Amino acid sequence: MLCLFNKIVTIDKFAERMTKVVFLGPTGTYSHQAALQQFPEDEGVEHVPTLSIPECFNRLQKDNEIDYAVVPLENSTNGQVVFTYDLLRDWMIEGEPSQDNRVDPAFEIVGEQYVAIEHCLISPKYLSPEDLATTDISRIYSHPQVWGQVANYMQSLSSICGNKLKKIDTSSTSNAVEMCMEDYKREPSTMSLSIASKTAAKLNNAHIVEHSINDFKGNTTRFLILKRRSTQCTTLDAAPSTKDHRKVTLITFTVKYDDPGSLVDVLMVLKQHGVNMCSINSRPFNNGNERKWQYIFFIEYYHEEGKLWDQVHSEIGLRCSKWCNWGTFYRNGRYYQ
User: For the chain, which ranges sit under pLDDT 70?
Assistant: First the structure.
């Protein structure tokens, strides 16, 4: 397997089947775009949409035909994607630790992708922005979360269209494009619009009237690339084509809650070994015992070659109730954009 800056090219002399990648569907979503960035369609890859983030994990775990899963982790504006964080939490909490308190769940992280959330105004046939004022437009479709992200633009658009636009919620932004295309097929004399990604427009052969209509620019979602630990497929060992070839490691852990300073003890291991931590998060958990207010911590740090990582991890394990190393992977170049 060769790893390029933002994609994986699978080379397997002994397997003729397609590489299968699950993602949060349907097609045309930002999750689909992340999967396409990592696994281009022209490289012997089949993209498999799922209905939910838990289904991505379940398919990767139970279906040996599935090689990878692409799941959202966090957004630069809205923060954690709690479904993904909590699934990682549950896999660690439910796992049986080894002698050094380490848990090795079924999955490991082998890469990351970043997708700019850039909403577009989309129509079923070509329209210029100037055409909006002279076209009979009565409906506009999108996912409910989108309206708040384009509130200022919607005020302007409604005024241009004569304040008669009816906003209609859909199950996804991709479905919004499908709905406006179906309207046009039934009633070509009137026009419906949708707000979605450029990928959704391309997949549905629709037209983009205006790009980047978000009120807030720079909104980006980060995605993780996961595979089963049991598979023989190699991880992304080749350095990406960027000036900064840093690797990142993600670990999760719980601490001994009756010990004062138990979290600081773990963080001091990183400090003493000169490890540069780049993020820290937490999620609550309740494993059925009498203590309700417990937390699992998520830490990412830069992995520098030459450090005694076995010693670092051993010292971390001694200070945790449970801990898990989810994987070491290259920082994607889109992180810096």
Answer: 1-16, 43, 231-244, 258, 288-290
Q: How many angstroms separate the CA atoms of 54 and 52, rounded?
A: 5
Q: Are 27 and 2 in contact (CB under 8 A)?
A: no
185: phi then psi, degrees, rounded to nearest 5 = -65, -35
Q: Any idea of the CA torsion for 248, 115, 42, 203, to the nearest 10 degrees? A: 160
C-beta of residue 230 within 8 angstroms of C-beta of residue 324:
no
Name the pTM for this structure. 0.82
* CA–CA dist 210, 119 (Å, integer): 9
Tens digits of per-residue pLDDT, 169-215?
Answer: 998 888 999 999 999 999 888 889 999 998 899 989 999 999 999 98
Residue with tokens 């979503």: 29
- Distance of alpha carbon 75 from alpha carbon 135, whole angstroms: 36
Kindly state the helix (H) or strand (E) to which residue 127 belongs, with its residue range.
none
8 A C-beta contact, residue 324 and residue 290: no
**What value does the CA radius of gyration of the chain take, rounded to a whole number of Å?**
23
